[in-house]
Amino acid sequence: MSTYVLDQGHPGERTRLEAMAGAWDPGTMRLVGALGIGTGHRCLEVGAGTGSIARALADVVGPEGHVLAVDRDIRFLGELPDGVEVRCMDVMVDDLPHAQFDLVHTRLLIAHLHPHRRALQRLAAAVTPGGWLLVEEVDWTCADLIVPEAPIHIAMVRALQQLMGERGGFDATYGRRLLGDVLSLGFTDVSAQYRGTQSRSSSESWLAWQLLVEQFQQGIIQAELMTQQEVDEWWSLSRDENNLVVGVTMFAVQARRLLEVSLGL
Question: Tens of pLDDT along 58-74?
Answer without folding.
Answer: 999 999 999 999 999 99
